[in-house]
UniProtKB/TrEMBL annotation:
Family to which this protein belongs: Belongs to the class-II pyridoxal-phosphate-dependent aminotransferase family. BioF subfamily.
Organism annotation: Xylaria multiplex
Spans annotated as Disordered: 426-453
Aminotransferase class I/classII large domain: residues covered: 36-412
BP-aspect Gene Ontology terms: biotin biosynthetic process
Keywords in alphabetical order: Pyridoxal phosphate, Transferase
Protein name: Aminotransferase class I/classII large domain-containing protein
Highest taxon of source: Eukaryota
Compositional bias annotation for Polar residues: 430-445
MF-aspect GO terms: pyridoxal phosphate binding; transferase activity
Cofactor: pyridoxal 5'-phosphate
């Protein structure tokens, strides 16, 4: 009876927390993507997850029609891996794939993880020691924050995101007067992303590298770059930002992910052979989890075969054209309608990636309208982004068309018109002594949108 009472109390507590989040407009739900909507939301930038050539290559792997795939499968396990890599989950094919990754990305070694999230946590949690310092971008991914919580490092310092992005005013990236740091007795780990998934901007990695060399001349500065969103997009053949800039020797470790442009799943750390062996011994997200199945490994291998064949270059070229076209359309829309910054604010500079944020005080309203118009975009609100920087996030893909971009821009223009009409009506009602709540306004606006469509 007591146990049942405690369980009921717990459920009530959880329900209260959920209700509070819902009242703040932050309650999350799982949704099944609708196939009837045009995708302007997913991270499948090159549309490789839909590619028939890749699909057939994966089927070839699974059917064992390639001797390499058959001979490298682990103990004939074509489905599950059988355990963690330190027990029974390792395979010759897994290590072959790591050699393929390190060769493609010009790294001494590579170590696979079940996701880039696991790779970040495993790396950050086990490498920095108690006397070391972690410096991180204020907009760094949640996985770095989780890794820092588990890390032995007692000093963690953030720096402003704007200080490492090109074409913005420079501010001091960081400074530390710690004697142990200056003498080289303490290591400093500098964590940045190559391509930021919410803003679509790119780190000025050459600047970061120069600052590290200038401020830490004893060589105790170690740059860690999360390239989860840049792999497949940036650099020759999609090798990433570090390779594009030729900074392989300046960056201590890179975390790559296969669930974005590569159209698969999983992640890896690109590093030295010594660091790889250290992670095998200390990274808990590798040691205490079941290794990836042969199916996952084969899909990653097939994606890299596709990249090295040059076929992906056509997709990158199409994507680059769409990015410029979409920017021009948004710019034209902004110049014609001149919406207030609260309604809609377009990026000022041409985008350098497929991610284009549109800032608005009404992100959920805009996202709903576009979805009603058959275009999938999603609202991004706090705490995913800082409060006051709410937006919808446009993600372009190689499979998108000019006509689809045109349709999306028309939907946004219609939303702006409906929102202006609704706000004018609210102002009139208020002046006449009526009262309209924000919730009433949102429902009324949604109703008008449905009627207009």
């Amino acid at each position: 009876m007591k146990a049942s009472s405690r369980m009921g109390s717990l459920e009530a507590t959880l329900q209260a927390r959920l209700a509070q989040r819902e009242s703040q407009g932050r309650l999350r739900h799982l949704e099944i993507p609708r196939p009837d909507l045009v995708d302007f939301s997913s991270n499948d930038y090159l549309s490789l997850s839909q590619d028939l050539v890749l699909r057939n290559a994966l089927i070839t792997y699974l059917n064992g029609l390639e001797k390499k795939a058959l001979s490298f499968s682990s103990n004939r396990r074509a489905i599950g891996s059988g355990g963690s890599r330190l027990l029974d989950g390792n395979s010759a094919f897994c290590e072959y794939l790591e050699h393929k990754l390190s060769g493609f990305h010009s790294s001494e070694a590579a170590l696979l993880f079940n996701s880039a999230y696991d790779a970040n946590i495993g790396l950050i949690s086990c490498v920095p020691g108690t006397r070391d310092v972690i410096l991180y971008d204020s907009l760094i991914h949640a996985s770095i924050h989780d890794g820092m919580r588990l890390s032995r490092a007692t000093k963690k310092i953030h720096f402003e995101h704007s200080s490492i992005i090109q074409d913005t005013g420079r501010s001091s990236v960081w400074g530390d007067s710690d004697q142990q740091v200056r003498c080289g007795e303490s290591n400093v780990f500098i964590c940045v992303e190559a391509l930021y998934s919410m803003d679509g901007d790119i780190t000025d990695l050459e600047y970061v590298s120069n600052v590290v060399k200038a401020l830490l001349p004893r060589g105790n500065g170690y740059i860690i770059v999360d390239e989860a969103h840049s792999i497949g997009i940036l650099g020759d053949g999609g090798r990433g930002l570090v390779c594009q800039l030729g900074l392989q020797d300046q960056v201590w470790a890179r975390v790559i992910g296969f669930g974005k442009a590569m159209g698969s799943a999983g992640g890896a750390v690109l590093c030295s052979s010594v660091a790889r062996l250290y992670l095998i011994n200390y990274a808990r997200t590798l040691i205490y989890t079941t290794a990836m199945s042969f199916l996952s490994l084969a899909s990653i291998s097939a994606a890299y075969d596709y990249m090295t064949s040059g076929e992906a270059d056509k997709r990158r070229k199409q994507l680059t054209m769409l990015i410029q076209y979409c920017h021009d359309k948004f710019k034209s829309l902004d110049q014609r309608l001149r919406p207030s910054a609260a309604l809609l604010r377009m990026p000022r500079s041409p985008p350098r990636s497929p991610i284009i944020p549109l800032f608005t005080s009404y992100p959920k309203s805009l996202a709903r309208h576009c979805q009603i118009s058959k275009f999938m975009i999603r609202a991004i609100v706090a705490p995913t982004v800082p409060k006051g920087q709410e937006r919808v996030r446009i993600c372009l893909h190689a499979s998108n068309t000019i006509e689809q971009v045109d349709g999306l821009c028309r939907a946004i223009e219609t939303w702006l018109g409906l929102l202006k009409t609704e706000r004018d009506a609210r102002t009139t009602k208020h002046n006449q002594g009526g009262a309209t709540t924000e919730a009433d306004s949102q429902e009324s606006l949604l109703g008008n949108m449905k009627a207009s469509l």
